[in-house]
Amino acid sequence: MKVPEGISMKRVKAPAALIGVLWVFLLAIGKNVCLAEPLGVNWGDISRQPLPPGIVVKMLRDNNITRVKLFDADYETLKALVGTNIEVMVAAPNDMLKKLATSERAARDWVSANVTRYMFRGGVNIKYVAVGNEPFLIAYNGSYQNVTYPALVNIQKALEDAGHAGQVFATVPFNADVLCGPSVDCSVPSGGVFRPDIADLMVSITSALNRTGAPFSLNIYPFLSLALSPDFPIDYAFFGDFTLTDSATNAIYSNVFDASFDTLVSALTKAGFPDMHIIIGEIGWPTDGNKFANIQYAEKFNNQVMTHLASKKGTPLRPNREFDVYLFGLLDENLKSVDPGAFERHWGVFYYDGNPKYALDLSGQGSADVWPKPAVGVDYLEPRWCIVNPSAIVDADVLTKNVDYACQRTDCSALQEGGSCNALDTYIKASYAFNNYYQFNYQDKYACDFEGLATITSSDPSPGVRQCRFQIGLSYQPVTASSVRIQAESSAIVVLVLFVSSLLL
Ligand SMILES: *[C@@H]1O[C@H](CO)[C@@H](O)[C@H](O)[C@H]1NC(C)=O
Ligand SMILES: *[C@@H]1O[C@H](CO)[C@@H](O)[C@H](O)[C@H]1NC(C)=O
Ligand SMILES: *[C@@H]1O[C@H](CO)[C@@H](O)[C@H](O)[C@H]1NC(C)=O
Ligand SMILES: *[C@@H]1O[C@H](CO)[C@@H](O)[C@H](O)[C@H]1NC(C)=O
Ligand SMILES: *[C@@H]1O[C@H](CO)[C@@H](O)[C@H](O)[C@H]1NC(C)=O
């Protein structure tokens, strides 16, 4: 770092004590500017042709990403992480919770196969085990309510018995819907409490986490607040242009992220855990499949998140602290469930093929026009696309039937309302669906027929460069047991009514 002339001039004449002060000052600046924040990302792979773990790990390293959160404990993935020093969160999916809750033996086997196995010198730097994923989501109707806590306790015990205490921590990634709830007045962050139906359970879980020194993990999604409630003030989803004053503390909030965080701090404080370490398990913004999901908003939001982290300002209730954050997500996932909305397949900072979508300075230093480094060595299929044959005589009903057929078997989320291909004409949309089906089937020529309506072309039919991209598939085979994973990562179906209804009063 270059020291400005004025300062070095002063240092020459300054008394020793002052020089000391100046040094501390400069060191402090040095710390803020020169050290990159440890950044985490969520790495899910519910895709038809997922990038091989080796390519993804190289991409993580090229981008100085030092933490990953996984949704399972896939062997190939962990093998690729051996020797990298990337800090890893492995996960036991929700559908394993019952077994882990009822059998200490199952928990021991899980830890042995998915943690201990990789903990050799120079192995995988496993730091956390996620026990379930958002198990108390309202949409799950309480299905995991009785099993999450005992599963956590059994995994903790298994980790301790295997000698990982103080090194590997079990936690439970929660959705923000563990807070407040429809019958609770959470109009300001200081009013935060746990959702009444699970409040006692949340205290037991937090106590178990606190006992081992594990963090509390919460997912926060300003996008969903906006997408799911038409009255939500858009500026509040971003950082800066909106303010809410907490009437009880006089703290001023300029974004729903800080407000959500402090709502949790308040809930934890009331439950007796004022100093509980908190990590943000997921935060991000999707780029397609909803009218608020686009590149511009995602770029703005994620850059603001990175700047907010780097500023170390913390929140009004936890000032001057760093956040531990995992961006959601690394790559688009074209087989994710779209029950919550078509946007679910478009959370990636990178497209399905590891190409970055927008400028984002992952070091958090806020540099403009810095793009994430793309994946290297990706194996694409041929530059060929499947489209509606321009010379075919098209019967509208037959076309519709064939588009439906393709869409049920591939990813048509960009065609949905608010999606990047939604406003285009019927033929382009049909071509988009046909092409995805063709690419999903590794460009098998029989996958581009559609009762004679389709034909293969070698000129890119995409109507725009960044809008409605017609994809070329990748040559990778689907990961086995992907059905298990689809359940494992079944996603954020949240209605964050809490911050919404209240805030508009
Ligand atoms: C990653 O970190 C290294 C060393 O600190 C630095 O030289 C490099 O520019 C960083 N790369 C990115 C993409 O930030
Ligand atoms: C290891 O973890 C994966 C993902 O949770 C799970 O499917 C598998 O059964 C685990 N292995 C054992 C022995 O429990
Ligand atoms: C929860 O209940 C709703 C309505 O009864 C139902 O549609 C849904 O499938 C249930 N979900 C689960 C995960 O059981
Ligand atoms: C959880 O336990 C309660 C009380 O024992 C019971 O009423 C409820 O049905 C159980 N829920 C599930 C999903 O098993
Ligand atoms: C949380 O853990 C800390 C450190 O072990 C301990 O001092 C504190 O009493 C615990 N808090 C509760 C409420 O159990």
Automatic annotation (TrEMBL):
Entry-linked Pfam families: Glyco_hydro_17, X8
GO CC annotation: plasma membrane
Keyword presence, Cell wall biogenesis/degradation: no
Keyword Hydrolase: yes
Entry keyword set: Disulfide bond, Glycosidase, Hydrolase, Signal
Top-level taxonomic group: Eukaryota
Gene Ontology biological-process entries: carbohydrate metabolic process
GO molecular function: hydrolase activity, hydrolyzing O-glycosyl compounds
The X8 domain, residue ranges: 384-470
InterPro entries per the UniProt record, alphabetical: GH, Glyco_hydro_17, Glyco_hydro_17_plant, X8
Family: Belongs to the glycosyl hydrolase 17 family.
Protein name, entry field: X8 domain-containing protein
